[in-house]
Amino acid sequence: MTVAPPAPAVAGLPAARPVRHRRRAALTFAVLGTALLVLAVLAAGIGQLSVPPAEVVGSVLHRIGLDVGPLPSHPNGDAALWSIRFPRVAMAVLVGAALATAGAVMQGVFGNPLAEPGVVGVSSGAALAASATIVFGITVLGPWTLAAAAFVGGLVATLLVYVLARADGRTEVVTLVLTGVALNAFTGAGLGFLTFLGDTQAREQIVFWQLGSLNGSRWQYVGVVAPLVAVGLAGAFLVARRLDLLALGDRAARHVGVDVERLRLVCIVLVALLAAAAVAFCGIIAFVGLVVPHLVRMVCGPGHRVLVPASALGGAVLLLAADLVARNAVAYADLPIGMLTALVGSPVFFWLLRRSRRTAGGWA
Fold it and tell me: Mapping DSSP to helix (H, G, I), strand (E, B) and coil, where does residue 137 land?
């Protein structure tokens, strides 16, 4: 009797798939890291006062003590870079990373691909609380007041979404989206009321919040946002492995030792922290947390240990590119960056909604 040897192609598939995913992940990190560096240099140099890339790099190297590369030839070039351009670039990187990571964590904890801070009302909840501090002149925590208020507003909104959208241990797509619609309508009404109450300066700030913009970013704002984003990112990286276990289902996750309710509570706090840090000085910038995790998931797979850091990197790249377009698409004008991200994110959201409906076999 002869025994047929196993087919090499079939036998090699289970071992080849992780190797292929690791290669794709490594390539994704390399491409995104390179894109981030290139975009950061271009974004710092392009504007009404143009600074060549070599002079941008030279200015940075001279600041860190390396006498390498040319300094900006324009008399105001170095001052423009360090007082206006670099703070804006740093803020774009921080806010993009925070929003994309919040979206990846939120989708993991809800088990739903449509969960995103902007779509389900978390960002607008944070904006409502922050706008209230502007209108009523609350400054109990000094420069941290706005960020703290945004954190509390984002936390309350996230808890509301979690409680209202979840039933029988799972989150339905329709319930999640409708909860987000209702929450966005409520916060929109609140913002309208605060706009009515506020003076001219407060109204301008609230309108700025609703449109979203990186204009006016300063180092002191970056100094407030950076530690919040760092804590949020570190927490998201730490819970990434347990989110992979949670994707197997609540019962399976508990069976391998995961405290599911505690994990969900920690993730909700992390999402609120990241969303609050993102909107505290830049307003509502929607759809970054929806688009980026989906694109990364299509390339690297659903594992959160790769998805979370790659989404942070991808969010930074996306927002830096969007801000570059916002500053230079129209001469002598600064377009609202929230408008640009909505132009890209809305069709993606519609496509995901249709695909989720097709996968679920209809919602009627």
Answer: coil
Cα–Cα distances in angstroms (integers) from residue 226 to residues 62, 220, 274, 276, in the given order? 24, 10, 10, 12
Residue 24 within any structural domain of the chain? no
CA–CA distance, 265 with 253 (Å, rounded to integer): 15
Q: Quote the number of domains for the chain.
A: 1
State how far the Cα of 95 lies from the Cα of 101, in Å rounded to an integer: 10
Residue 297 C-beta-side C-alpha neighbours within 13 Å: 17
Q: Encode pLDDT of 28-80 as tens digits.
A: 999 999 999 999 999 999 988 889 999 999 999 998 888 888 888 888 888 99
* Position 203 in a domain: yes
Q: Residue 68 falls within a domain, yes or no?
A: no
328, containing H or E segment: helix 304-328
Tell me whether residue 40 is in a domain.
no
Cα 159 to Cα 157: distance, rounded to the nearest angstrom:
6
Q: What is the pLDDT of residues 152-168, one digit of tens each?
A: 888 888 888 878 877 77
Alpha helices in the chain (DSSP H): 8-45, 53-63, 77-80, 86-110, 122-136, 145-165, 173-197, 200-211, 219-246, 250-255, 260-279, 288-300, 304-328, 337-360
pLDDT at position 90: 96
**212 token code pair:** 């979203």
CB 173, CB 134: distance < 8 Å: no
- Model confidence at 361, pLDDT cuts 50, 70, 90, reads low
- What's the confidence (pLDDT) of residue 134? 87
Instruction: Print the domain residue range for 116.
Output: 93-350
CA–CA separation, 363 vs 219, rounded Å? 48
Quote the pLDDT of residue 100.
94
